[in-house]
């Protein structure tokens, strides 16, 4: 699961709806899950606030996602993001896109209290990152989705998203060469890795616990390289991929423990959000509604526990992958990004609108 809040500009409500559903509601693969598009657009367009709405997407790998799971995600997201607040104070609209090789659950929330008419931002890209991450982690475990917490899903290289495409391509090329040298035993230590980059015209300028910074000797441009291959405790042994596979197996076998941990983390994130919004929430906060949101989490866990025997499908799928190859793991660094994967970006500008 990937959750992303878009950089919403001063677009109209109608422009937002047009992007999601098409001007004549003709967009292929688009369907309304809940909410009224005309009502949401009207609320946004009647607002005089500079930021009139917040929008984002929850992306799920695969096309055949069970409707029950989709409803659990959308209803859970809506209830938990507004935990403790009456439902009549916020408007939500959900639109599902199935025109790609994954499912996108798009949401639009006008930034206005429907009762008082005052500004309130229920989701903030910067300050609600902790809540969004904990929500993602909980449902990743509950529904068995791919998660960046799985050792085999760790990226060996992470680059800044604002780097030019040409720089990304070159750095990925060098990184893949370095990973092959590590696997073949040519690069056996951090010092060998630095020598590798120096050979290709880059000087290591700084070293941190989870990244290094290199400088192009000719252009003097600096680049930060992060990912598990650049962490200070990275194991340079040739069988490190096999060790990742073993760690991943143990990770999947600890599902119940991870469910309990993700539940606690999600509840703590809700407590932090309520505290952050205290100046607004204290006037309207309903403890019964807040408890209902917490109860939803426990109800989902109970239903999961009662439904079937322990699901070992994940382990079977894991075994079916076969050996993890150097090429496969290296190329993972190009495509996998928990919050900045190009394959999960909307086809047009995330500002929604023509």
From TrEMBL:
Residue span of region Disordered: 322-354
Organism domain of life: Bacteria
Acidic residues: compositionally biased ranges: 338-354
Record-given protein name: Relaxase/mobilization nuclease-like protein
Organism: Paraperlucidibaca baekdonensis
């Amino acid at each position: 699961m990937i959750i992303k809040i878009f950089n919403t500009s001063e677009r109209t409500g109608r422009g937002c709806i047009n992007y999601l559903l098409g001007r004549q509601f003709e967009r292929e693969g688009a369907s309304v899950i809940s909410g009224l598009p005309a009502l949401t657009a009207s609320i946004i367009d009647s607002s005089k606030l500079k930021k009139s709405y917040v929008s984002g997407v929850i992306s799920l790998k695969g096309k055949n996602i069970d409707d029950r799971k989709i409803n659990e995600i959308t209803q859970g997201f809506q209830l938990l993001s507004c935990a403790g607040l009456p439902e009549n104070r916020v408007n939500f609209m959900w639109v599902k896109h199935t025109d790609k090789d994954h499912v996108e659950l798009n949401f639009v929330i006008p930034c206005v209290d429907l009762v008082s008419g005052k500004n309130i931002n229920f989701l903030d890209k910067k300050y609600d990152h902790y809540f969004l991450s904990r929500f993602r982690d909980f449902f990743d475990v509950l529904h068995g989705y791919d998660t960046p917490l799985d050792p085999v899903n760790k990226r060996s290289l992470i680059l800044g998203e604002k780097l030019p495409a040409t720089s990304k391509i070159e750095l990925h090329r060098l990184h893949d060469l370095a990973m092959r040298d590590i696997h073949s035993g040519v690069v056996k230590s951090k010092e060998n890795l630095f020598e590798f980059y120096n050979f290709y015209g880059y000087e290591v300028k700084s070293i941190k616990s989870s990244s290094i910074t290199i400088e192009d000797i000719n252009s003097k441009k600096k680049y930060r390289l992060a990912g598990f291959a650049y962490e200070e405790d990275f194991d340079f042994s040739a069988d490190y991929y096999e060790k990742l596979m073993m760690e991943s197996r143990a990770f999947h076998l600890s599902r119940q423990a991870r469910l309990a941990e993700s539940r606690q983390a999600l509840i703590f994130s809700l407590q932090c959000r309520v505290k952050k919004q205290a100046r607004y929430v204290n006037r309207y906060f309903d403890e019964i509604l807040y408890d209902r949101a917490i109860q939803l989490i426990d109800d989902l866990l109970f239903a999961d526990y009662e439904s079937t025997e322990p699901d070992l499908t994940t382990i079977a799928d894991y075994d079916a992958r076969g050996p993890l190859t150097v090429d496969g793991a290296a190329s993972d660094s190009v495509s996998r990004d928990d919050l900045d994967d190009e394959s999960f970006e909307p086809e047009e500008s995330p500002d929604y609108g023509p």
